[in-house]
Structure formats: structure tokens, C-alpha cells
Amino acid sequence: MKNYKIGENKLSVDIVEEIISNDTVISLSSSSKKKVKSSNNYLLKKIKSDNNPIYGINTGFGSLYNHKISNNELSKLQKNLVVSHACGVGEEVPSELVKIILLLKIQSLSFGNSGVNIKTIQRLIDMYNNDILPIIYEQGSLGASGDLAPLAHMSLPLLGLGDVEVSNNPKYKKYDRIKSSKILKDMGWDILSLGPKEGLALLNGTQFMGAYGVWCLVKAKKLSYIADLISAISLDAFDCRKDPFDRLIHVLRPHKGQIKTANNIREILKGSKIQNQKKKHVQDPYSFRCIPQVHGASKDAIDHVESIFNIEINSVTDNPNIFESKDKIISGGNFHGQTLAMSMDYLAIALSELGSISERRTYNLISGERDLPPFLIKNAGLNSGMMITQYTAASIVSQNKQLCTPSSVDSIVSSNGQEDHVSMGANSATKLFQVVNNLEKILAIELINASQAISYRNKMSSEFLQSFIQLFRKEVNLLEKDRILSDDIQKSIYFLKNLKIDKELI
């Protein structure tokens, strides 16, 4: 995909991933251009012909909705909105997520229900295509009137204000970030004068939450398969039985994710001599035996949340909405992020559980059971081996549990009571982001332990797993004696981050 035309087809989480990962150039489709121009013309005519107050267009914002603004101050009103709402703090949003925010905002404005000038959308497109990315901060959104503070920071460069990141733009190799005013001058871009409603259309919306959710879903789908893959190594390393993965069991309880997980495990372990050898034990611990049920539940949660986001990223989420064919401008609440907040809280729980059961497998692997040496090291006592890797995993698992406290059940009244119920969806989003990154670390630790443990088995695992472990060994060597394992964990994380997985497996 070299060029993607916004408006020709619906977006999906998978399509967003493809656009972002392939550095795809985006543009507006002819149909979108037509709708955007028509909506903007309608709005301008409406303002001239109708002197009645229209929220956010010729009135103040939030609890200031009853303050009428004169027509000659409408542009200043929109600029003031952007500037005053740029109150973000905390860590900077990673550039990959900023690109998704821009993409989703362009998509939402392209439907022609927002009344913005096409020049405004085109500027966002130009910024996206040139990797001129606004500096946005993680904290500041309540997830109800849209992601106001983050999207205000997204919008500042349109006005020649704020900073942008340019590290991926070859024209600015020596810079990480630069003043927007300089970029505009260098690119020959004018400072935009926002028309009626444009500031509100830019700031209202769920694109901050949406971008985090999309990114986390992309990672979640990959990590879900990786969890199956690493757990399969653990199964052979711990000399586990293959019975719990028999298809006959899972058709009795045919949850989609459960069946898929069991299928994955059977495929990964096909031909394993360890699996087929006689077992001394009748049953395995739940963290091994119940992999299909636990991993499967997480897969089903991922699928459910993805279906919600596929709707959201094809929606108009600013306010008010313009319906030209009906001659109506309607103020509503499509900016409220409750749907996303609840779904991301759910996804965080689902991914946290993948980490929780992974740590339990690590714990068993280092236990000294089933003919494995204590802490998976020769001369245990003199060497501590993998002992503290489990501590690290346990610490991260505990943090994930804390991060799973739902944000969506919280609300704080704002704007003098006008905004009296908020979603806290932005907090759901940033918490989920942490959970995803934590899960990757936990799985990386299990991979280190599982690949170490399986080296003590006399028989061979499947050809697939043998080749996978061989690939991993190029990054992390077997542990023969104590060394600094933080380095190994970082290498393992890097290995998983860069692991390419066929789409059909995910």
C-alpha cells in the first residue's frame, strides 16, 4: 500500500496498522473532498442567514455556552479555544501514536459532518505525510468532551504554535523537535486562520483514546500468539502432557479463542518427541493445563474490543454535528468516550491475565521439579541462576493488576457542572498502554526461562520450536553460570518486538 485515499473504504485496526507500518502516503478521496467542501459552505451560509446561537460556533464553550459571540470574533474564538485548552502535561506521546491520532482525526473530519475548511484537513494530511508530528502529552484528557487537551496540542502547529517532532523527516536530521513556526516557514505553509467551529471540530473527538486503543490492539493480537508460542516451549520444558489440548475437549466448550489456542499449541508442538514420551505424572498445574481456557478468553476479549474500535474509528465524534441535507446542526454527545473507556479497561484485564499465567509457568520452571535443576542452573547454590527473573516477572504482574483498576467507573465533575459525567477514557488508554508493554516484558522473561529449561531435556521438541529457539539463541545465550540477566531480558524484549509473525497466525 503506497497511497491510501481517506473516504474510499472504511478503516479498520488492521488497515491502520498497514498504513502506519508501511509509511503510506494518505490523501482525501474525491468524494470526501466534495462532502467536506459542501459542509463548510453550508455552515458559513447558515451563520450569515441565522442569528440564533449555535453551540461552539457563535457561543462560548462548556459552561460558557450561554455567552453569545459576535460574527466578527468567530475566528478569534476558535483560536482562543485551541490555545486555552493546550494544558497537557506528563510524558510525550510516542511518535507512532501521534501519527495514528492524526490519521484518525483526518478520518473523522472527512465525513463532512464537522463543517471544517478543507485547507485545515489538508494541513493535517501534509503534517502526517511529512512526519511533522505535534508534541502531545499523555495527561490532561477526561475522555468526555473529547480528548480536549491532547487534541489542542495536536492542533497548535496549525496556528504556528507549539513544537513538533521531526526526527523521522530527513530534512531535519539534526533535530528531534523544533518550533512549529520554523517548520511552517521552511515548508512554505501559511499560519491557518480557523473558521467557525474549526477549533471545536479539532479538539472534540476520541482520537487520543482511539489511537492508544488501536496501537494496543495491534500489539495485543501479536502478543496473544507469542504467548501461545512461548507457552508451548514451557510445556515441553516442563514435560507436560498433551491431553489437555486434544480437540475433543474443546469442541465440548467451543469458545472461539479457546479452540484457536488449542489448535495453535497442537500445531506448534507437532512432531515433538518430548510430547510423545511416557509421562510420570497424571496431571499438570493449571498454568500449563488451562492454557487454552485462559489464553482463549483473552483472545475473545481482544476480538470483542477490536469490533468496538472498528466502529469508533469510522465515526464522527466531534460536536455539534452538521446535517446539510436536513438543514440541521445538532448538538449531542458523540465525543463521550465511555464505550472506549470500558472496552480498554476490559482489554487491560485480558492482557494482564496473559502475563499472570505466564509468570506462574516461569515459577514452575525454576522450581527444581520434573528433573529440572533448581533455578535452571548447574551448581545451584554457588549460582543463583534464573531465581530473580521470576521476582522481576512477579513485580511486573503485580503492577499490571494495579493498573487493571477500571478508569471507566470514575468521574469528576468539570466545567462548572456542565460536564457532570466523564469517561476517564484517556486514563484507560494510557493504563492499557502500560499493561501491553508490561506483558511483553513478562513473556520475554518466560521465553528466557523456557528456552533454558528445555535445554535439559534429552529428547527433541518439534522442528518448529527447535528452529525458533535457535533463532532466539542468536540474541540470548544459554546460562552456564551467573551473569547480569537484565541484559538478557532486554535482548529478549527486543527479540519479541522485532519478531515477524504471519498475519494468518494472528
Give structural notes.
There is one protein chain. The protein is mainly alpha-helical and 506 residues long. Helix 1 packs across helix 9. The longest helix is centred in the middle third of the chain and has 31 residues. The protein is elongated and about 85 Å long. The mean pLDDT is 94.
SSE order: EHEHHEHHEEHEEHHHHHHHHEEHHHHH
With strands numbered from the N-terminus, the spatial order across the biggest sheet is 4-6-7
* CA-CA gap between termini: 20 Å
Helix/strand class? mainly alpha
CATH third-tier fold name of the largest domain: Fumarase C, Chain A, domain 2
The helix tally amounts to 19
Give the number of DSSP strands.
9
Overall mean pLDDT stands at: 94
Could you say what the CATH architecture of the largest domain is?
Answer: Up-down Bundle
Instruction: Summarize the main sheet.
Output: 3 strands, antiparallel
* Top-tier CATH class of the largest domain: Mainly Alpha
